[in-house]
Amino acid sequence: MNTIVHTTQQIYRQLINAASRPGHVEIITEDVKNYTGFSNAALLTAMTLFDNEISFYSADKTMRQELKVLTGGLPNKDYSSADFLVTKEADLKAEYFKEVMKGVLISPEKSATLLIDIESIGKGQAYRLSGPGIKESTDIQLSFPSSWFALRNEVCKEFPLGIDLILTDKENNTVVIPRTTKVEVL
Q: Residue 146 belongs to what domain range?
């Protein structure tokens, strides 16, 4: 019998693996009743990471309601003070990178994580990732415009401050790009 606890434990292990090896693609194959327009990977990732002590922002009303019910997370009307932002690539705004919590030197962990459901991981623009968890460098293709990475890189230039990205796609692929990872366009 596979309960939601077993499911989220498995996904948590996959997310830890992806976060410790930026650019590594994890496929989240667990099944979930998904009433949103987001991928199962996006919904399951949020279900795994959210609890009743975090706040999240999503402009998508259905996703906001699902996450509130499934996780007990606190929907936030203000993206600039939310712990997590959950969005589709098509709904992404520059403000989501510029005006979110980036941490402060005494508490760099008080920063936002952007969970973005994109069109494709494995197809599109090629990027080279380097930094902690990557031996020398690793290349990845994403259908994610380089202009968004330019904004993300600007926000993350003053380590330990910055934001983390979790990218999912419709094939339930998941990639974690921590603030410590350098991203270059190839």
A: 4-185
